[in-house]
Structures are given as C-alpha cells and as structure tokens.
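Internal ticket #5521
Category: modeling
Description: The requester needs a full-assembly model to guide mutagenesis choices. All entity lines are attached below as received. Residue total reported by intake: 606.
Assigned to: D.W.
Attached entities:
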Amino acid sequence: MAQSASPGAEAPPVMELRNVSKTFGEVRSLAGVDFQVNPREIVGLLGDNGAGKSTLIKVVMGFYGPDSGGEIYFHGKRVHDWSVARARSLGIETVYQERALCEKQPIWRNMFMGRELRNRFGLLDVAAMRNECSRLMSEHMGFTSTAVHPDNVVATMSGGEKQGVAITRALHFEAELVILDEPTMGLSLSETKKTLDFVRSIKAAGKSAIFIDHNIFNIYPVVDRLYVLDRGKVAGVFNRADITMDQLIERLYHVARTGSMELPP
Amino acid sequence: MSEEAAGVPKVGHKAAPPSLLTRYGSQMGIVGVGFAMWLAFVIAAPRVFTDVDIYLAFAETTPLFGIVALSLTFVVITGEIDLSFPSVMALGTAIFCLVTYYGGAPWWLGLIAAGLTGVACGLLNGFLVASLNIPSLVITIGTQFLFRGLELVLMNGTGVPLLVDKYPQMHTLLREPLFGVPVQTLWMVGILIIEWLLLNRTRFGAHVFLVGDNQTSARLMGVNAGRVKIKAFVLVGVTAVFCGLLSSIYGYYFWPSTGDGSLLNTIASVFLGGTSVFGGTGSVIGTFVAAFIIGAINAGIVSAGVNAFYTQLAFGLVIVVSVVLQTLIDRRIRRQSLTGK
C-alpha cells in the first residue's frame, strides 16, 4: 500500500522486482534490474545468450534469492521469504528451458511434482493423480491415439511430448502467472504454433505471462510489453503498440553492437 | 462393436501401460535368482534345506541387518549412500546400556535415548551430505570411524550383558517368538509395511524418487532436496539403532564391535533388490526379498559344507553382478525407448 506510487485505482502489478542484482562469485548476471508484470499482461523478455534472462526468471520463481538491496513484490506487497514452494503456492508456474522433468519417473509423478495430491488421511492419492494425468494428456496434449500411458516413464517420450508435459503441468494448476522460458526450443513447426496458441490462451483466461525467447518472430506477435536485457541490465522496455517489428530488430542489432538501445540521431 | 460397448479400449487406442517386464523386470529377476539359489542349496545340502529349522534361523537373523537395509534403500534412491550405519548400531546400543545398565534408568528411557542417538547420527550425516554437499561415499566413511570411536571411548571398549532377568521387556519385544513366529521377522514385516507406505504413499517418498532422479528439476519445482536427503539419513540412523538393539538382545550381550560385518550384507541386499546405484529408482519390497536371499547365502554356504570364507566372495559377487546388470538393463530399456523397437 505504502509503495503504490502510481496514482489512480489501478491494480498493482502481479509481480514486481526492484533493483534486483544477482552475482555468482565474480560473475554479475543481473545488475539493478527493475521489472514488472501487470494483471492480464503478457511480457516478453528478449536478450542474447547470457543476457540474464534465465537468471531473472529464476529470481522471480524463488529459485535464486536476489543480492541484498533487491526487492520482490507480489500484488504490491513486499515478500521476504520468497521460495519456489512459496511462489508456486501463490500461483506462479514455470515451463523451464531445461523442462525440469525427472525422466526415470512415470508421467503422473512428473505432472504432480512438488504438488502431489493427497487423500484425507494425508497419504498420496495415486489413483487420482493417474486419472487426472490421463485426462490432461488426452484433453490438453492430444495423446488419445498415441501409446502414451500415465505410467510410462518420461525418458521414452519425444522432445515435443516432454514439452507437452511441462506445459500441461503449468496449465493444470491454473496459475495466475505463467513463465515460459524458451518454450519453443527444439520444437517442430506445428508444436511451436501450439505453444504460441497456448501463450495467447493465458491472456484470454485473464492470467499473466512472462515469455522468454531469443527468437523475436515468436515473441513479438503475442506480447503486450517487451523487456530487452543486455549483459544483466534492462536495455529497454517497449509497448508493442509503440514499435514495429522492424524498428525493434534494428534496435536489437544496435544493442548487440553498442550495449545501448538508443539509436544515433 | 460389442467389445467397444463393453468398455474395452477402442481399437487404435494404444495407450497401454508399460509391460510388466519393463516395470518389474529387476524385481522378477531377483525372485528368479533367489529361487535358483535355493534349488542349488537344496541339491547341495538336502538334509539341511528340507528341515524347517534352517528357515527359522533365517527368520531370526536376517532382520538383524535386513531392517536397516530397508531404510538404506531410501538413501540409495536419493542417489546417496550411508556406510556409517554399522557404527550407529553400536553407538545407539551403547547409549542404551549407559542409560539403563550404568545409569539405572528404566528400559523405555534407554530406548528413547538410543532412538535420539540414531536421529542425531542421521542428522549429522544428512547435514554433511545435503547442506555441505560432501559426497556421501566419502563422508560416511569418516562418520563411521567417528561414531565407532565415540562408542569405544564411552564404553571403554567393554561389553554389557543383556540378560532376561534384567531386561524382561526388551526380551519380550525383541527376542521371544510371538505365537511361534520369530519376532524379528514380524518386526521386519511391520517395518516393511510402514516404509512401503512412506516411500510410495507419502510426499516425502515421492520426493525421494524425484531428488534421486534429477535434483535440479526437483528443486526447480519447489522440492526441498536437502531436507528430503536429511530425512532419509535420519531414517537409516533410527533403524540402525533398532537393529543394534535387536542383534544385541538376540545375543544376550552388547559387544563393542556390534554392527561389524553387517555392512556387506546390508548393501548387497539393497543392490540385489534392484535399487539403482544411479538413484531415482528402487523398491523396499525388492530389498526385503533380497535380504532373505543374502541371509540364505550366508547359511547355505556354511551348511553346504563350503568354507565360510566363501561368503565374502559370494557377497562381493552379488554386489558387482547386480550393479552391472542394473546398468545394462537400464541402458537397454533406454535404447529401446529411443529407437521404438
């Protein structure tokens, strides 16, 4: 409440980072980043390899704590004890670049990883998880006619199918904020299209998303706002309405050469 | 038509579960190996192996190491190992003796003190492995000497008699057969049921599998990997103390060397039971069956008239062969799944 600097009755951002830095030994992955995601907004995160995109979302997700001085706000309230379990319990789900699957385990165990269903005795409800997994696979992953069973181990699936598990998992828990870290990497054309449709569906459902990709052609059409990261800093923030894809590409080339977003006059 | 109407999966709907061989291959293998070995013993020493006495003897002695093997299965599934449990068996029992025999406290207070000792040993192991990230193979060799040394110092290297008239309740609990069934095996079955539920029907158990399979993935999805590992080590610590008491009461005497010689049997049981050295897969039922096979090898080699020195050779072989087989089966399944053949 105290920090609502912006006037009016606008809802506070779902998620906000202020002055977040992250250092690993000698390497500074993030340097004083300010970042926010508003309700019903799809935020794109662009940047070269090593720009700090994955580190940023791992801070958002609570996997890394920010260096001292960095602040995290959830719905306008400062949070101190941020952790993955906390973030997920508040409705933030991530589809990680590395997929975060346990490949020797059956699909149902992966689907409910860290959020296992329990019955009234506090024991795992394995039957419910299997059934729910079966339903999700046929309704959201289109697996009705393939030889995929909830008891199959993930190692036996194709790359796209594995991505399907990771996305369905994020979708299932009806997250308020979905983070997609390079979700189209290694996917076929049709699988990529499906993933982008999924990103659009998040907004249609009134939720927010952070979409990370290094491919501007994937990211530009679906986002409302774009952050460009360069060498751990926010090099620029754009509303999609204010910039065309060509202008954006030109600026990205410029930032890669000079580290600055501003074009010479 | 009628098939579909009867709720049989439609033609073309091939979502069949993985075959039984894929899922339970290693467990079925163990039972096969166990059966073959039993046949060999029956042929080699028919008089011994057709008599019920030998089986009663198995049922009394196998749980002395088999119970801790059940718990060790958890640690191995998380991708770690605990080599310190033989010393924990001795240290916990030593504390029991100090509190009750020298301190004059009642038996149940001794049990509580011994249990807490097991918890403390497990916490230390878990802390060193999970919080300081030290390879468990190395650090639990260290704590093995640490715990053993502490026990020898505390007891000054002497033993304590644990006779029925001084410890009647302990003997009722841990030694007297119940309705003619060896109580040791009853304990092992009871603990198997509890630990099966713990591994397969609780969040902790689910996280044991996830952490052992891919620790980073588990942590990214909010699993506290360190806490899961520490809990698994504590489980081993507590059951190790239980086994220490069980075997000391069985022998009516606490020897300062309690636990020596149980290392090989226990580890062989876990690996023969199909729990993967690579972490992420394993089963307490496999360990249970394997423990009795190991117990049978022990007795079988001696009663078949072979020199007892061969038991070490046999256990060494069991560990090496089962680990090699696990590796090969694992690879074959993976390759099949990749090529779809």
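Resolution: model delivered.
Comment from assignee: Residues 28-322 of chain B form a domain with the ABC transporter involved in vitamin B12 uptake, BtuC fold (CATH 1.10.3470).
Ticket closed.
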